[in-house]
Amino acid sequence: MSKSPPLAPNPPLGNPAPSRPAPLHRISSQELFQQAREVEIDHEGRIYRLRMTSLNKLILTA
Predict the structure, then answer these.
(1) Structural domain boundaries of the chain?
(2) Is 61 within 8 Å of 51 (Cβ atoms)?
(3) What is the pTM of this model?
(4) How far is CA 22 from the centre of its chain?
(5) Where is the composition biased (Pro residues) (predicted)?
(6) Are 40 and 48 in contact, with CB atoms under 8 Å apart?
(7) What pLDDT digit, counting tens, does each position of 19-61 carry?
(8) Rounded CA gap, 50 and 43, in Å?
(9) What's the confidence (pLDDT) of residue 39?
């Protein structure tokens, strides 16, 4: 009885598993607002306002 050659490993199916993305930079709202209820954010020369409501929700407006 002849031996059959060993089977080659199966090639991976589809795309390889994606690498993990870098962790996001997180800033606490307390750090961002400090003692204020509203901050201005300058993004590419445009000013946005981030406001904390009386219900502790955040609203971003241009």
Answers:
(1) 37-61
(2) yes
(3) 0.61
(4) 8
(5) 1-21
(6) yes
(7) 888 899 999 999 999 999 999 999 999 999 999 999 999 999 9
(8) 12
(9) 97
User: CA torsion 41→59→27→47, rounded to 10°?
Assistant: -10
Predicted confidence at residue 11, as pLDDT, reads 62
CA–CA dist 16, 18 (Å, integer)? 6
Task: Note the helical H segments in 1-62.
Answer: 29-33
pLDDT greater at residue 14 or residue 49? 49
CATH 2.10.70.10, applies to 37-61: yes
φ, ψ for residue 59 (rounded to 5)? -130, 125
Residue 28 identity (one-letter amino acid) = S
